């Protein structure tokens, strides 16, 4: 019943956790990711910890893939090699479970259906690209090439990815696959293969060709109702992909579109710094609870846009979002299964990853804080 008490308390009160220096929040988050890695029998990171069921879910290839660069960055910035060592073990695990065709499987490692999917493959590119650059281990280069080649081959001639949707989501045509295009940018930057950048550009061109006049993207949510609403998590995915492909391709039109979308989201930020979880096609919010991952991702987007354009107006929004998430990170509990982790929703019974602490919420939280802390130095957060 403790999870119900937590949900009621969070619904009725403002965040109570005092905000500490960024270093403290980062260390607790990084330590939770390493602790989570030890919770399963492999070297992946569990999908999440479920406080209602009181158990860890199985390792999740998709998000383990992009946890890897976060831990390499953290190890580098703070000179703490054990986090890089953990990241390398994650990358080895990803190579070990890579499918024969080069793709990355949908769902968790214990899923009954084993099938490659576009989005998950795009996300693991981040890990292999970073691991290859950090270690020079040829297995990571090989895995990166095989997966990037698979993504390029799976792309339709107009730039869309229509084949290999996830069997575990109801949405099949996804604007947020610009985040997979961003993964191809990382492969291009690591390997210098122009075809990867070309495919990334084609996907963003196709995605933006479908945008409404107010910059809203259709098919930009995890659910089949994506024509009615979109989650901040997937909105942020699409913005980051458009932005980073634009930077790599020197396409100012992409960067400008990302800025406009990010500004639409910022205008509905709450006073406490959080974002309501869902937006409608007129950029109005449609939920009272907050998707914590979306808060961090938008902080990253706002900071990257400020960094790239020199326009400082979005920085306060980013700092407010980071401070909100810092205020709900539990740094005082003795329960290592949640200490330092970020939950799916606030309150915790909200509609995204209900009663769970998903690994990617903590990953993006770290990215947002590192980008804020090292604002003038970091240009390449994954």
Structure description:
With 382 residues, the chain is mostly helical. The chain has helices at residues 2-12, 22-37, 61-78, 81-97, 118-135, 138-154, 178-191, 194-209, 232-249, 252-266, 292-309, 315-327, 359-373, and strands at 48-50, 55-56, 230-231, 278-279, 290-291, 345-346, 356-358. It has one domain: Glycosyltransferase (Alpha/alpha barrel). Helix content is 54%, strand content 4%. The strands form three sheets. It has a three-stranded antiparallel β-sheet. It has a two-stranded antiparallel sheet with strand order 3-4. The model has no long low-confidence stretch (mean pLDDT 94).
**CATH class assignment:** Mainly Alpha
**Low-pLDDT residue intervals, each spanning 5 or more residues:** none
> What is the SS-derived class?
mainly alpha
Rounded to the nearest angstrom, the distance between the terminal CA atoms is 37 Å
Radius of gyration: 19 Å
GO biological process, one term: carbohydrate metabolic process
Protein name: Squalene cyclase C-terminal domain-containing protein
Question: Any chance you could write out the topology, listing elements then pairs?
Answer:
Elements (H helix, E strand, L loop, with lengths): L1 H11 L9 H16 L10 E3 L4 E2 L4 H18 L2 H17 L20 H18 L2 H17 L23 H14 L2 H16 L20 E2 H18 L2 H15 L11 E2 L10 E2 H18 L5 H13 L17 E2 L9 E3 H15 L9
Antiparallel strand pairs: 1-2, 1-7, 3-4, 5-6
Helix pairs in contact: 2-13, 3-4, 3-5, 3-13, 4-5, 5-6, 5-7, 6-7, 7-8, 7-9, 8-9, 9-10, 9-11, 10-11, 11-12, 11-13, 12-13
